[in-house]
Amino acid sequence: MLFRSLAAAAALLVASPVMAQDLDLRAQVAAFVQPSNEARTAVVVAQLRAAGFAPTVETFTGGNRQTGEMEGRNVVVTIGDGPREILLTAHYDAVKLRDGTMSHGVVDNAASVVGVIEAAKILRGKALTHRIRIILFDQEELGLIGARQWIAAHGLTNVAAVVNSDVAGYGDTMMYGQNNGAQSAFVTRAVQELCAERALQCVGYPEYPPSDDRAFSAAGAPVVSLGFQDQIGAHQMWLAFNGGEANGLAEGFVPQVFQLIHSAEDTMERVDPATVALAGATYAAVVERLDAQLSR
Ligand SMILES: [Zn+2]
Fold first, then answer.
1. Count of domains in the chain?
2. 213-232 residue pLDDT tens
3. What is the mean pLDDT of residues 1-30?
4. What are 273's strand-pairing partners?
């Protein structure tokens, strides 16, 4: 009897489509563990093709003072059509560690990339009035270079809003930055409305760590940067960035997420595919909401 019910339970688990998707998403994130960012470009392109998209690779001359001139590659997909665009973005590059090896770069930021691809798959089925441009940036870790180069090459004339994702590997709490200028207020408001509507735990940060969003807000575009973390970590991070001297955190305390990103600790053990799925669904809903609001 016990054996039979265990077997029945196991059969149910195997049959569960949610679990199959989780395994899939986990494998997709793990595929980004590569010895170079060039190899990561190939992974982005392959995953987009496998999802039925026809990505283009836009090369640029990047690099910074430390690296010297270095070619970079942004990977781009468009969905639908319209005179105005909403951009959904995440960087796929990983940092080089002090010992010369590459960080696995999964929490930062392969999990976001896979989440954005999931969002793209959802958005492809929607009737939207904006063209959606998915951009997976290179060289964020060298100083937002892929994003800056994209803006320099294309301009922002037709860009109505930008949604960026950085650090979305685990946890059920969505983080959003509120420091991208007055032009971005309607984007953060759309995020807040969605959080309320979905009863999603969200935390807004008056000060939020920089990602490619800063390249866009510096150029005047409306933009929000999103991420995911566990609830405690999200609040500790809020206090670390926004709590001032009297933030109540222990002397020298560093939130867990900052101990693991840009280190050898940013590994698949940290990644929860449920967060990747949640991020994908939520990002798609944010874009859909912005599309509707901007079309009124
Ligand atoms: Zn990052």
1. 1
2. 999 999 999 999 999 999 99
3. 65
4. none
